[in-house]
Fold this protein.
Amino acid sequence: MRNLATTCLLALSLLPGLTRAACECGYSANVTGTVEVFTDLIETDFTKVKDIKNNTDWVRQEFNKTSTNARGPLGEKFQPTNIAAVHEGSSSYGLSSTQADAGLQLLVESSTVDGLVPTAEIDSARHDVHHGSFRAMMKVPDVAGTCAAFFWYHNDTQEIDIEFLTKEFSSSNSSFPINLVLHSRASLERGYDASGTGNFLKVNLGFNPTMDFHEYRIDYLPGKVTFYADGKVLGAINGSAVPTEGGHLILQHWSNGNPLWSGGPPKRDAILTVASVKAYFNSSLDARRADHEDRCVDPAAPGAVCAIPDEPAFFFSTQANMTINQT
């Protein structure tokens, strides 16, 4: 027989208008004037991570690309040893030869190994990331000849990219472009060149991205992708090239010597530093959607949906009772 306390708790959980946990129905974001609610999240404060090998939300990648597959004069050698975390208060420089910012370091080396440039990639462990709002707080290297990227990926014809080509930066005329790309079947047919498909934007930032950390954001909704820097809309791409499936998030730093894109290799080792990633999204998995239906008792109840604050230091995952079965 249930005791009185258990019976009371069960009764309370069944009452309309009462939530069992904060944010149980999701997290809301203002997407160009429209409020969207997302059910799940991935949040990682890399400045608090002591050893990236022990982080279960992210997986370091290890693979090689030949020069042919990399579409450059050099190939790429993605290796876990080119990824390191430097946590706040640490005396470690990580992969840097000088004092380093706290965060996740992704290294591109200046030397080559058997015709391959040593590079870095780390992927989200979850591959069911569907429509959502994805944010990365990054500091881009000031060394010419690399591509620093934050992107969402399903396959080569369903991909959403934010890419920095450091060879394009010029302090003399305050030119700091960011490349916003949708890879689709059209770009595949053009040899993975999206620039002539109408799904490519090059926007000059109003700041030097190598001097400090800035938040770069992708909002992926049905039929539309919007890109931001520090909360300001940079541009949007609509239409049939917008992906339709679930995928995963990727942080990548690479070079293959292609003069039409990454350039390089860099003349000295270059490090992309990522302070944090926050992703709020709907899952593409039936089981995860069923979990949401089970826990979301009343989406109109106070606290059932939590607004995502425009505050880089805030993480739902460090708060009590705000991410139950949502990570």
User: Anything to note?
Assistant: Residues 1-19 have pLDDT under 50 and may be disordered.
